[in-house]
Design goal:
The protein contains 4 helices and 11 strands. The protein has 272 residues and is an alpha+beta fold. Strand 3 and strand 4 form a beta hairpin. The radius of gyration is 20 Å and the shape is elongated.
Length: 272
Protein backbone atom coordinates (compact mmCIF):
# COMPACT_ATOMS: atom_id res chain seq x y z
CA UNK A 1 0.00 0.00 0.00
CA UNK A 2 1.36 3.41 -0.94
CA UNK A 3 0.58 6.36 1.28
CA UNK A 4 -0.36 9.78 -0.08
CA UNK A 5 -0.97 13.05 1.71
CA UNK A 6 -4.29 14.52 0.64
CA UNK A 7 -5.84 17.90 1.02
CA UNK A 8 -9.17 17.10 2.66
CA UNK A 9 -9.96 20.74 3.32
CA UNK A 10 -13.16 20.46 1.31
CA UNK A 11 -14.54 17.54 3.32
CA UNK A 12 -17.38 19.18 5.20
CA UNK A 13 -18.38 16.21 7.34
CA UNK A 14 -14.96 15.27 8.66
CA UNK A 15 -16.07 16.43 12.12
CA UNK A 16 -18.21 13.30 12.31
CA UNK A 17 -15.00 11.35 12.83
CA UNK A 18 -14.90 12.56 16.43
CA UNK A 19 -14.35 9.78 18.93
CA UNK A 20 -15.94 9.50 22.37
CA UNK A 21 -14.85 12.16 24.84
CA UNK A 22 -11.47 11.74 26.40
CA UNK A 23 -13.03 11.48 29.82
CA UNK A 24 -14.45 8.13 28.69
CA UNK A 25 -10.99 6.69 28.17
CA UNK A 26 -10.53 6.07 31.88
CA UNK A 27 -7.40 8.20 32.00
CA UNK A 28 -7.33 11.47 33.90
CA UNK A 29 -5.49 14.40 32.36
CA UNK A 30 -4.49 12.27 29.40
CA UNK A 31 -2.77 14.42 26.78
CA UNK A 32 -3.08 13.68 23.07
CA UNK A 33 -1.14 14.50 19.94
CA UNK A 34 -3.42 15.04 16.97
CA UNK A 35 -1.91 14.39 13.57
CA UNK A 36 -2.68 14.97 9.93
CA UNK A 37 -4.83 13.03 7.49
CA UNK A 38 -3.34 10.74 4.90
CA UNK A 39 -4.91 8.41 2.39
CA UNK A 40 -4.11 4.80 1.75
CA UNK A 41 -4.50 3.52 -1.78
CA UNK A 42 -5.37 -0.16 -1.89
CA UNK A 43 -3.97 -2.06 -4.85
CA UNK A 44 -6.74 -3.36 -7.05
CA UNK A 45 -9.31 -1.02 -5.56
CA UNK A 46 -9.79 0.79 -8.83
CA UNK A 47 -8.35 3.98 -7.42
CA UNK A 48 -4.87 3.80 -8.90
CA UNK A 49 -1.77 4.78 -6.99
CA UNK A 50 -2.19 8.53 -7.08
CA UNK A 51 -4.27 10.80 -4.87
CA UNK A 52 -8.00 10.34 -5.24
CA UNK A 53 -9.64 13.12 -7.21
CA UNK A 54 -12.86 14.57 -5.82
CA UNK A 55 -15.99 14.09 -7.90
CA UNK A 56 -17.99 17.07 -9.09
CA UNK A 57 -20.71 18.11 -6.68
CA UNK A 58 -24.34 17.69 -7.64
CA UNK A 59 -26.71 20.55 -6.79
CA UNK A 60 -29.01 17.91 -5.29
CA UNK A 61 -28.43 15.77 -2.22
CA UNK A 62 -27.45 12.15 -2.84
CA UNK A 63 -29.39 9.44 -1.01
CA UNK A 64 -26.58 9.05 1.51
CA UNK A 65 -26.53 12.78 2.21
CA UNK A 66 -30.33 12.89 2.46
CA UNK A 67 -30.36 10.07 4.98
CA UNK A 68 -27.65 11.69 7.10
CA UNK A 69 -29.46 15.05 6.95
CA UNK A 70 -32.78 13.51 8.05
CA UNK A 71 -31.10 11.79 10.99
CA UNK A 72 -29.41 15.04 12.02
CA UNK A 73 -32.66 17.00 11.75
CA UNK A 74 -34.48 14.37 13.83
CA UNK A 75 -31.87 14.66 16.57
CA UNK A 76 -32.15 18.46 16.58
CA UNK A 77 -35.97 18.35 16.70
CA UNK A 78 -35.95 15.85 19.56
CA UNK A 79 -33.50 17.93 21.60
CA UNK A 80 -35.64 21.03 20.98
CA UNK A 81 -38.72 19.04 22.12
CA UNK A 82 -40.41 19.80 18.80
CA UNK A 83 -42.21 16.47 18.87
CA UNK A 84 -44.49 17.17 15.92
CA UNK A 85 -41.49 17.84 13.68
CA UNK A 86 -39.63 14.89 15.19
CA UNK A 87 -42.55 12.59 14.36
CA UNK A 88 -42.63 13.87 10.77
CA UNK A 89 -38.90 13.31 10.36
CA UNK A 90 -39.16 9.86 11.94
CA UNK A 91 -41.83 8.91 9.41
CA UNK A 92 -39.69 10.28 6.57
CA UNK A 93 -36.78 8.16 7.76
CA UNK A 94 -39.02 5.09 7.89
CA UNK A 95 -40.11 5.66 4.29
CA UNK A 96 -36.48 6.11 3.25
CA UNK A 97 -35.43 2.94 5.07
CA UNK A 98 -38.20 0.90 3.43
CA UNK A 99 -36.63 1.73 0.07
CA UNK A 100 -33.16 0.58 1.17
CA UNK A 101 -33.03 -3.19 1.85
CA UNK A 102 -30.10 -3.01 4.26
CA UNK A 103 -31.60 -0.18 6.32
CA UNK A 104 -35.00 -1.90 6.37
CA UNK A 105 -33.52 -5.17 7.61
CA UNK A 106 -31.41 -3.38 10.22
CA UNK A 107 -34.51 -1.68 11.58
CA UNK A 108 -36.53 -4.90 11.57
CA UNK A 109 -33.69 -6.71 13.34
CA UNK A 110 -33.49 -4.04 16.02
CA UNK A 111 -37.26 -4.11 16.54
CA UNK A 112 -37.35 -7.91 16.72
CA UNK A 113 -34.63 -7.97 19.39
CA UNK A 114 -36.36 -5.25 21.42
CA UNK A 115 -39.64 -7.21 21.28
CA UNK A 116 -37.86 -10.51 22.04
CA UNK A 117 -38.97 -12.05 18.73
CA UNK A 118 -35.71 -13.93 18.45
CA UNK A 119 -36.71 -16.27 15.62
CA UNK A 120 -37.54 -13.24 13.49
CA UNK A 121 -34.31 -11.58 14.61
CA UNK A 122 -32.30 -14.61 13.51
CA UNK A 123 -34.00 -14.54 10.09
CA UNK A 124 -33.30 -10.82 9.61
CA UNK A 125 -29.71 -11.31 10.71
CA UNK A 126 -29.20 -14.11 8.19
CA UNK A 127 -30.74 -11.99 5.41
CA UNK A 128 -28.41 -9.13 6.31
CA UNK A 129 -25.40 -11.43 6.24
CA UNK A 130 -26.45 -12.56 2.78
CA UNK A 131 -26.86 -9.13 1.16
CA UNK A 132 -24.40 -7.05 3.22
CA UNK A 133 -22.03 -9.22 5.26
CA UNK A 134 -20.35 -6.29 7.03
CA UNK A 135 -23.41 -4.29 8.03
CA UNK A 136 -23.77 -5.98 11.44
CA UNK A 137 -20.53 -4.28 12.49
CA UNK A 138 -20.55 -0.75 13.87
CA UNK A 139 -18.52 2.01 12.21
CA UNK A 140 -16.43 2.17 15.37
CA UNK A 141 -14.48 -0.21 17.58
CA UNK A 142 -12.69 -0.19 20.92
CA UNK A 143 -10.12 -2.72 22.13
CA UNK A 144 -7.42 -2.84 24.81
CA UNK A 145 -4.28 -4.99 24.76
CA UNK A 146 -1.81 -4.92 27.67
CA UNK A 147 -3.13 -1.53 28.74
CA UNK A 148 -2.95 0.01 25.26
CA UNK A 149 -6.41 1.12 24.13
CA UNK A 150 -7.22 1.61 20.44
CA UNK A 151 -10.45 3.41 19.46
CA UNK A 152 -11.50 3.83 15.83
CA UNK A 153 -14.38 5.55 14.06
CA UNK A 154 -14.99 5.61 10.30
CA UNK A 155 -17.11 7.87 8.07
CA UNK A 156 -18.04 7.89 4.40
CA UNK A 157 -16.62 10.84 2.45
CA UNK A 158 -19.26 11.67 -0.15
CA UNK A 159 -17.33 14.42 -1.92
CA UNK A 160 -14.36 12.22 -2.80
CA UNK A 161 -16.35 9.16 -3.85
CA UNK A 162 -17.38 8.22 -7.38
CA UNK A 163 -19.90 5.35 -7.08
CA UNK A 164 -20.40 5.22 -10.87
CA UNK A 165 -16.71 4.29 -11.15
CA UNK A 166 -16.75 1.87 -8.23
CA UNK A 167 -14.89 4.21 -5.87
CA UNK A 168 -16.07 4.75 -2.31
CA UNK A 169 -13.87 6.87 -0.07
CA UNK A 170 -13.82 6.31 3.70
CA UNK A 171 -11.93 8.23 6.36
CA UNK A 172 -11.23 6.96 9.84
CA UNK A 173 -9.82 8.40 13.03
CA UNK A 174 -7.70 6.42 15.46
CA UNK A 175 -6.97 7.22 19.08
CA UNK A 176 -4.30 5.23 20.90
CA UNK A 177 -4.23 5.64 24.68
CA UNK A 178 -1.47 4.26 26.89
CA UNK A 179 -3.28 3.25 30.07
CA UNK A 180 -0.29 1.22 31.25
CA UNK A 181 2.57 2.43 33.44
CA UNK A 182 5.27 1.81 30.81
CA UNK A 183 6.24 3.88 27.74
CA UNK A 184 5.70 2.22 24.37
CA UNK A 185 6.69 2.89 20.79
CA UNK A 186 4.54 2.05 17.77
CA UNK A 187 6.78 0.30 15.25
CA UNK A 188 4.58 -1.16 12.53
CA UNK A 189 0.97 -1.38 11.40
CA UNK A 190 -0.95 -4.25 9.84
CA UNK A 191 -4.37 -3.83 8.24
CA UNK A 192 -6.79 -6.37 6.81
CA UNK A 193 -9.28 -4.60 4.51
CA UNK A 194 -12.25 -6.56 3.17
CA UNK A 195 -14.82 -5.31 0.66
CA UNK A 196 -18.45 -6.40 0.31
CA UNK A 197 -17.47 -9.07 -2.22
CA UNK A 198 -15.15 -10.74 0.27
CA UNK A 199 -11.97 -9.55 -1.44
CA UNK A 200 -9.30 -9.03 1.19
CA UNK A 201 -6.14 -6.92 1.14
CA UNK A 202 -3.44 -7.42 3.78
CA UNK A 203 -1.39 -4.27 4.20
CA UNK A 204 1.71 -3.76 6.34
CA UNK A 205 3.93 -0.75 6.85
CA UNK A 206 6.36 1.01 9.14
CA UNK A 207 4.74 3.21 11.80
CA UNK A 208 1.75 5.41 10.99
CA UNK A 209 1.62 8.57 8.84
CA UNK A 210 5.40 8.53 8.56
CA UNK A 211 6.02 8.35 12.30
CA UNK A 212 6.93 5.75 14.90
CA UNK A 213 5.45 7.60 17.86
CA UNK A 214 6.53 7.09 21.46
CA UNK A 215 3.50 7.08 23.75
CA UNK A 216 4.24 7.73 27.40
CA UNK A 217 2.06 6.41 30.23
CA UNK A 218 -1.25 8.27 30.60
CA UNK A 219 -0.83 9.99 27.24
CA UNK A 220 -2.23 9.30 23.82
CA UNK A 221 -1.68 9.67 20.09
CA UNK A 222 -4.37 10.45 17.50
CA UNK A 223 -4.29 10.46 13.74
CA UNK A 224 -6.70 10.37 10.82
CA UNK A 225 -6.34 8.42 7.63
CA UNK A 226 -8.48 7.44 4.68
CA UNK A 227 -8.94 4.52 2.36
CA UNK A 228 -10.78 3.97 -0.96
CA UNK A 229 -12.89 0.86 -1.44
CA UNK A 230 -14.45 -0.60 -4.58
CA UNK A 231 -17.77 -1.42 -2.85
CA UNK A 232 -20.18 0.63 -0.75
CA UNK A 233 -19.43 -1.35 2.40
CA UNK A 234 -16.62 -3.34 3.91
CA UNK A 235 -14.61 -3.77 7.06
CA UNK A 236 -11.18 -3.09 8.49
CA UNK A 237 -9.26 -4.69 11.33
CA UNK A 238 -5.64 -5.19 12.22
CA UNK A 239 -2.97 -4.58 14.80
CA UNK A 240 -0.07 -2.33 15.75
CA UNK A 241 3.33 -3.83 16.56
CA UNK A 242 4.72 -2.08 19.63
CA UNK A 243 7.49 -2.45 22.19
CA UNK A 244 8.19 -1.18 25.67
CA UNK A 245 11.14 1.21 25.60
CA UNK A 246 11.97 1.48 29.30
CA UNK A 247 14.19 -1.62 29.17
CA UNK A 248 16.76 -2.76 26.62
CA UNK A 249 16.01 -5.91 24.67
CA UNK A 250 12.28 -6.11 25.32
CA UNK A 251 10.23 -8.16 22.88
CA UNK A 252 7.63 -6.59 20.64
CA UNK A 253 3.92 -7.28 21.07
CA UNK A 254 0.81 -6.79 18.98
CA UNK A 255 -2.01 -4.42 19.96
CA UNK A 256 -5.36 -5.34 18.44
CA UNK A 257 -7.43 -2.99 16.27
CA UNK A 258 -10.91 -4.48 16.61
CA UNK A 259 -13.02 -4.87 13.44
CA UNK A 260 -15.12 -1.90 12.34
CA UNK A 261 -17.38 -1.26 9.37
CA UNK A 262 -16.93 0.95 6.34
CA UNK A 263 -20.44 1.90 5.25
CA UNK A 264 -22.00 4.60 3.10
CA UNK A 265 -24.94 4.73 5.54
CA UNK A 266 -22.89 4.80 8.72
CA UNK A 267 -24.36 2.70 11.51
CA UNK A 268 -27.68 2.43 9.69
CA UNK A 269 -31.19 2.55 11.09
CA UNK A 270 -31.45 3.84 14.64
CA UNK A 271 -34.72 5.70 14.54
CA UNK A 272 -36.90 3.35 16.58
Amino acid sequence: MRMHCLNLKAVANLHSLSLPGRASSGVKDCSFRVNRIVACSVPGSGSGTGPVQGSSQSPFFSRTETYALLKQQLEVAAKAEDYKEAARLRDSLRVFEEEEPVLRLQRLLKEAIAQERFEDAARYRDELKEIAPHCLLKCSSDATTLGIRVQVRSVYIEGRSQPSKGLYFFAYRIRITNNSDRPVQLLRRHWIITDANGKTESVQGVGVIGEQPVILPKTGFEYSSACPLSTSSGRMEGDFEMKHIDKVGTRTFNVAIAPFALSTFGDGADTT
